[in-house]
Design brief:
Radius of gyration: 17 Å
Structural class: mainly alpha
Distance between the termini: 36 Å
Helix content: 55-70%
Number of strands: 0
Shape: globular
Largest sheet: none
Length: 240
Protein backbone atom coordinates (compact mmCIF):
# COMPACT_ATOMS: atom_id res chain seq x y z
CA UNK A 1 0.00 0.00 0.00
CA UNK A 2 1.10 3.57 -0.49
CA UNK A 3 3.39 4.68 2.30
CA UNK A 4 1.47 7.82 3.32
CA UNK A 5 -2.07 8.60 4.24
CA UNK A 6 -3.68 11.70 2.81
CA UNK A 7 -3.10 14.72 5.02
CA UNK A 8 -5.94 16.65 6.56
CA UNK A 9 -4.95 19.66 4.43
CA UNK A 10 -6.17 17.80 1.37
CA UNK A 11 -9.63 17.67 2.94
CA UNK A 12 -9.57 21.28 4.10
CA UNK A 13 -12.35 22.51 1.80
CA UNK A 14 -14.72 19.74 2.88
CA UNK A 15 -13.77 20.22 6.52
CA UNK A 16 -14.55 23.94 6.40
CA UNK A 17 -18.06 23.19 5.19
CA UNK A 18 -18.50 20.54 7.86
CA UNK A 19 -17.36 22.98 10.56
CA UNK A 20 -19.78 25.66 9.34
CA UNK A 21 -22.55 23.07 9.29
CA UNK A 22 -21.82 22.14 12.90
CA UNK A 23 -21.76 25.79 13.93
CA UNK A 24 -25.06 26.50 12.16
CA UNK A 25 -26.74 23.38 13.56
CA UNK A 26 -25.34 22.67 17.05
CA UNK A 27 -27.69 19.76 17.77
CA UNK A 28 -26.18 16.51 16.38
CA UNK A 29 -29.58 14.84 16.01
CA UNK A 30 -30.79 17.77 13.93
CA UNK A 31 -27.65 17.58 11.77
CA UNK A 32 -28.26 13.91 11.07
CA UNK A 33 -31.88 14.65 10.21
CA UNK A 34 -30.84 17.32 7.71
CA UNK A 35 -28.17 15.08 6.20
CA UNK A 36 -30.62 12.20 5.90
CA UNK A 37 -33.15 14.42 4.15
CA UNK A 38 -30.45 15.65 1.79
CA UNK A 39 -29.25 12.12 1.04
CA UNK A 40 -32.77 10.88 0.32
CA UNK A 41 -33.55 13.89 -1.88
CA UNK A 42 -30.28 14.34 -3.77
CA UNK A 43 -27.95 11.35 -3.45
CA UNK A 44 -30.55 8.60 -3.69
CA UNK A 45 -31.51 9.54 -7.29
CA UNK A 46 -27.84 9.59 -8.28
CA UNK A 47 -27.29 6.20 -6.69
CA UNK A 48 -30.26 4.77 -8.56
CA UNK A 49 -28.57 5.77 -11.83
CA UNK A 50 -25.40 3.98 -10.72
CA UNK A 51 -27.35 0.88 -9.71
CA UNK A 52 -28.80 0.71 -13.20
CA UNK A 53 -25.23 0.09 -14.42
CA UNK A 54 -24.69 -2.92 -12.13
CA UNK A 55 -23.26 -5.82 -14.16
CA UNK A 56 -25.54 -8.76 -14.81
CA UNK A 57 -23.35 -11.12 -12.76
CA UNK A 58 -23.77 -8.87 -9.71
CA UNK A 59 -27.56 -8.90 -9.86
CA UNK A 60 -29.75 -11.47 -8.11
CA UNK A 61 -31.52 -14.20 -10.02
CA UNK A 62 -34.37 -13.57 -10.52
CA UNK A 63 -33.63 -9.85 -10.98
CA UNK A 64 -35.02 -7.43 -8.41
CA UNK A 65 -35.67 -3.70 -8.30
CA UNK A 66 -33.31 -2.21 -5.69
CA UNK A 67 -35.22 1.07 -5.27
CA UNK A 68 -37.05 0.06 -2.09
CA UNK A 69 -33.95 -1.57 -0.60
CA UNK A 70 -31.90 1.55 -1.31
CA UNK A 71 -34.25 3.89 0.53
CA UNK A 72 -34.62 1.56 3.50
CA UNK A 73 -30.85 1.04 3.67
CA UNK A 74 -30.16 4.77 3.72
CA UNK A 75 -32.54 5.22 6.64
CA UNK A 76 -30.99 2.23 8.43
CA UNK A 77 -27.50 3.64 7.96
CA UNK A 78 -28.47 6.86 9.69
CA UNK A 79 -30.06 4.84 12.48
CA UNK A 80 -26.77 2.98 12.98
CA UNK A 81 -24.94 6.30 13.31
CA UNK A 82 -27.38 7.48 15.96
CA UNK A 83 -26.44 4.64 18.35
CA UNK A 84 -23.63 4.65 20.84
CA UNK A 85 -21.77 1.65 19.38
CA UNK A 86 -20.02 1.52 16.04
CA UNK A 87 -20.80 -0.34 12.83
CA UNK A 88 -20.92 -4.10 13.29
CA UNK A 89 -20.98 -7.21 11.13
CA UNK A 90 -24.65 -7.74 11.98
CA UNK A 91 -25.42 -4.23 10.73
CA UNK A 92 -23.72 -4.89 7.39
CA UNK A 93 -25.56 -8.19 7.14
CA UNK A 94 -28.88 -6.46 7.84
CA UNK A 95 -28.24 -3.98 5.03
CA UNK A 96 -27.34 -6.80 2.66
CA UNK A 97 -30.44 -8.78 3.61
CA UNK A 98 -32.63 -5.89 2.44
CA UNK A 99 -31.16 -6.32 -1.04
CA UNK A 100 -30.83 -10.07 -1.14
CA UNK A 101 -34.12 -11.59 -0.07
CA UNK A 102 -33.17 -11.85 3.59
CA UNK A 103 -29.73 -13.43 3.02
CA UNK A 104 -26.95 -11.45 4.67
CA UNK A 105 -23.74 -12.88 3.22
CA UNK A 106 -22.95 -14.96 0.19
CA UNK A 107 -22.83 -18.71 0.55
CA UNK A 108 -21.14 -19.44 -2.74
CA UNK A 109 -18.14 -18.37 -4.81
CA UNK A 110 -18.17 -14.67 -5.71
CA UNK A 111 -18.43 -13.22 -9.19
CA UNK A 112 -15.21 -11.79 -10.61
CA UNK A 113 -16.54 -8.22 -10.84
CA UNK A 114 -13.35 -6.18 -11.26
CA UNK A 115 -10.83 -8.98 -11.72
CA UNK A 116 -10.48 -12.78 -11.58
CA UNK A 117 -8.80 -12.82 -8.15
CA UNK A 118 -10.72 -15.33 -6.01
CA UNK A 119 -12.73 -13.89 -3.14
CA UNK A 120 -12.48 -15.45 0.34
CA UNK A 121 -14.32 -18.63 1.19
CA UNK A 122 -17.89 -17.83 2.34
CA UNK A 123 -17.26 -19.58 5.64
CA UNK A 124 -14.62 -16.98 6.55
CA UNK A 125 -16.52 -13.83 5.58
CA UNK A 126 -18.04 -12.85 8.90
CA UNK A 127 -14.73 -13.31 10.71
CA UNK A 128 -12.85 -11.28 8.11
CA UNK A 129 -15.44 -8.53 8.27
CA UNK A 130 -15.25 -8.47 12.06
CA UNK A 131 -11.45 -8.18 11.95
CA UNK A 132 -11.69 -5.36 9.41
CA UNK A 133 -14.18 -3.40 11.51
CA UNK A 134 -12.04 -3.96 14.63
CA UNK A 135 -9.08 -2.48 12.71
CA UNK A 136 -11.03 0.74 12.21
CA UNK A 137 -11.29 0.97 15.99
CA UNK A 138 -7.51 0.99 16.53
CA UNK A 139 -6.25 4.31 17.88
CA UNK A 140 -4.09 5.36 14.93
CA UNK A 141 -6.77 4.34 12.43
CA UNK A 142 -9.46 6.20 14.34
CA UNK A 143 -7.45 9.37 13.72
CA UNK A 144 -7.76 9.02 9.95
CA UNK A 145 -9.98 11.42 8.10
CA UNK A 146 -13.53 10.10 7.54
CA UNK A 147 -13.08 10.24 3.76
CA UNK A 148 -10.00 8.05 4.15
CA UNK A 149 -11.93 5.55 6.26
CA UNK A 150 -14.66 5.47 3.64
CA UNK A 151 -12.01 4.88 0.99
CA UNK A 152 -10.35 1.99 2.82
CA UNK A 153 -13.58 0.21 3.76
CA UNK A 154 -14.73 0.49 0.14
CA UNK A 155 -11.57 -1.30 -0.98
CA UNK A 156 -11.86 -3.93 1.73
CA UNK A 157 -15.46 -4.74 0.82
CA UNK A 158 -14.48 -4.97 -2.84
CA UNK A 159 -11.81 -7.50 -1.85
CA UNK A 160 -14.18 -9.61 0.22
CA UNK A 161 -17.26 -9.35 -2.03
CA UNK A 162 -19.32 -10.52 0.96
CA UNK A 163 -22.81 -10.00 -0.45
CA UNK A 164 -24.88 -12.52 -2.44
CA UNK A 165 -25.60 -9.82 -5.06
CA UNK A 166 -25.57 -6.03 -5.47
CA UNK A 167 -21.93 -5.93 -4.32
CA UNK A 168 -21.17 -2.78 -6.29
CA UNK A 169 -24.05 -0.88 -4.72
CA UNK A 170 -23.39 -2.09 -1.17
CA UNK A 171 -19.64 -1.48 -1.52
CA UNK A 172 -20.49 2.16 -2.20
CA UNK A 173 -23.21 2.47 0.42
CA UNK A 174 -21.86 0.76 3.56
CA UNK A 175 -18.73 2.98 3.91
CA UNK A 176 -20.94 6.08 3.97
CA UNK A 177 -21.29 5.26 7.67
CA UNK A 178 -17.94 6.89 8.49
CA UNK A 179 -18.88 10.10 6.69
CA UNK A 180 -22.35 10.49 8.17
CA UNK A 181 -20.92 9.69 11.61
CA UNK A 182 -18.61 12.71 11.24
CA UNK A 183 -21.31 15.06 9.83
CA UNK A 184 -20.20 14.79 6.21
CA UNK A 185 -22.47 14.03 3.28
CA UNK A 186 -21.64 10.87 1.34
CA UNK A 187 -19.80 11.26 -1.98
CA UNK A 188 -22.07 12.42 -4.77
CA UNK A 189 -21.26 10.16 -7.72
CA UNK A 190 -23.17 10.14 -10.98
CA UNK A 191 -23.52 7.60 -13.76
CA UNK A 192 -20.85 9.54 -15.65
CA UNK A 193 -18.44 8.84 -12.75
CA UNK A 194 -18.97 5.08 -12.89
CA UNK A 195 -16.01 4.23 -15.19
CA UNK A 196 -13.61 6.37 -13.14
CA UNK A 197 -14.93 4.93 -9.88
CA UNK A 198 -14.47 1.34 -11.05
CA UNK A 199 -11.01 2.09 -12.41
CA UNK A 200 -9.98 3.77 -9.15
CA UNK A 201 -11.43 0.88 -7.13
CA UNK A 202 -9.46 -1.62 -9.21
CA UNK A 203 -6.27 0.36 -8.52
CA UNK A 204 -7.13 0.49 -4.83
CA UNK A 205 -7.30 -3.29 -4.76
CA UNK A 206 -3.75 -3.24 -6.12
CA UNK A 207 -2.80 -1.14 -3.06
CA UNK A 208 -2.73 2.08 -5.10
CA UNK A 209 -5.29 4.00 -3.09
CA UNK A 210 -4.64 7.61 -4.14
CA UNK A 211 -7.01 7.71 -7.18
CA UNK A 212 -9.99 6.46 -5.19
CA UNK A 213 -9.20 8.84 -2.32
CA UNK A 214 -9.09 11.75 -4.75
CA UNK A 215 -12.32 10.70 -6.42
CA UNK A 216 -14.09 10.40 -3.07
CA UNK A 217 -12.73 13.74 -1.88
CA UNK A 218 -13.99 15.54 -4.97
CA UNK A 219 -17.35 13.76 -4.71
CA UNK A 220 -17.77 14.81 -1.07
CA UNK A 221 -16.97 18.40 -1.99
CA UNK A 222 -19.55 18.15 -4.79
CA UNK A 223 -22.08 16.86 -2.27
CA UNK A 224 -21.39 19.85 -0.01
CA UNK A 225 -22.03 22.17 -2.95
CA UNK A 226 -25.37 20.45 -3.57
CA UNK A 227 -26.18 20.55 0.13
CA UNK A 228 -25.76 24.34 0.14
CA UNK A 229 -28.45 24.71 -2.52
CA UNK A 230 -30.63 22.11 -0.81
CA UNK A 231 -30.22 23.98 2.49
CA UNK A 232 -30.97 27.37 0.99
CA UNK A 233 -34.16 25.99 -0.53
CA UNK A 234 -35.44 24.02 2.44
CA UNK A 235 -33.65 25.50 5.46
CA UNK A 236 -32.73 29.14 4.68
CA UNK A 237 -31.32 29.61 8.18
CA UNK A 238 -28.37 27.39 7.23
CA UNK A 239 -25.64 29.28 5.40
CA UNK A 240 -22.64 27.10 4.63
Amino acid sequence: METRYRTFQEYEAADRRRDRFRAAVPDPDRRRTLLRQFVRACLEPAERELLALTPADDRPDPPSDPAEALGASLDALFAFVSRERGLGVADIGALSARWNGGTAFRQHAAADLLDPVPAPDPATLEGLLANSLDWFGVGSVMMMHPVEKCNLLTIRLADLRPFPAWNFGLVRLVPWYFLVQADFPPPLLTAADAPAWRAALALGRELRTQPLAELHRRAVERAWESFVFFGLEHFPEIQL
